[in-house]
Amino acid sequence: MHADNLNVFYGKAQALHDIDINVHDGEIVALVGRNGVGKSTLIKSICGLLPTRAGRRMLRGRDITSEPPYVTARLGIAYVPDNRQIFPNLTTEENLRLATIRARPGAWYLDRVYTLFPRLRERASFAGQVLSGGEQQMLAIGRALLLNPVLLLLDEPTEGLAPVVVDQLVDALRIIHAAGVAMLIVEQNFRMTEALASRQYVMDSGRIVWSGSTEEFGSQRAEVESLVFF
Ligand SMILES: Nc1ncnc2c1ncn2[C@@H]1O[C@H](COP(=O)(O)OP(=O)(O)OP(=O)(O)O)[C@@H](O)[C@H]1O
Ligand SMILES: [Mg+2]
Q1: What percent of the chain has pLDDT over 90?
Q2: Which of 28, 129, 224, 226 holds its CA 20 to 30 A away from the CA of 96?
């Protein structure tokens, strides 16, 4: 995925300014920054949930600038929102089966998701609303995988989760990555993104203010932190 000079507005208010961002096939990239700088706005605009006023988005050589979310999903972009958007009155399995209805053909199917997240198999007949935060996050990721994405957009997947659950998620994301799925992960949890991502983008006030490899991110930590005072 390649976005070029993206400009996104909420009404008259400009939320994103001249954003350039790439996620290559099979790559894990992190997007970090303070609250309210535009991280969620950026990943929503990548999957077409928000219209682009200027700029261009490409997926594997195809121009997706004007494509709505159901088209970008069919082309392989799966979005895992920060509020997870589980259907509360459907069971875990019903939530998952719904995702298979419009899925692209591919290697991810229900049993493989249950193998990745054994906890979901145990909770298959429980309503979405009684799942723990970690289980809901697993369900949201499992549902996205059933679309057979080439790119997974994850908005703060570890927010509010206990460290042991975060570790389980990191292990699962490694397996998903090994299966060839690229990811753009919005995170405040550096421990997680440093363990997973090969590159990092830092946002402030609707702009990308720093980008580089995760090694550079580590060695220039003081400079990066001064840009955004985490
Ligand atoms: N639906 C909306 N209508 C108008 N303004 C919005 C809307 N959603 C977000 N904004 C504004 O756009 C800016 C970026 O918000 P966004 O949610 O993308 O930030 P974020 O980096 O994801 O923050 P957080 O860390 O809190 O999730 C903020 O100033 C926010 O107030
Ligand atoms: Mg956000």
Answers
A1: 87
A2: 28
Among 17, 19, 21, 40, the mutation site with the greatest number of ligand 1 atoms within 8 A of its Cβ is 40
Q: Quick check: CB of 10 below 6 Å from ligand 1?
A: yes
CATH number for the domain spanning 131: value is 3.40.50.300
| Residues spanned by the domain of 114 | 2-228
C-beta of 230 in contact with ligand 1 (< 6 A)? no
Strand partners, 2: 22, 58
The predicted-structure confidence for 193-223, as pLDDT tens digits, reads as follows: 888 999 999 999 999 999 999 999 989 988 8
Q: Into how many domains does the chain fold?
A: 1
Question: Is 41 touching ligand 1 by the criterion CB < 6 Å?
Answer: yes
Residues 6 or more apart from 149 whose CB is under 8 A from it? 73, 76, 77, 78, 104, 181
* pLDDT digit string, tens, across residues 11-64: 999 999 999 999 999 999 999 999 999 999 999 999 999 999 899 999 999 999
The answer to whether the CB of 8 falls within 8 A of the CB of 50 is: yes
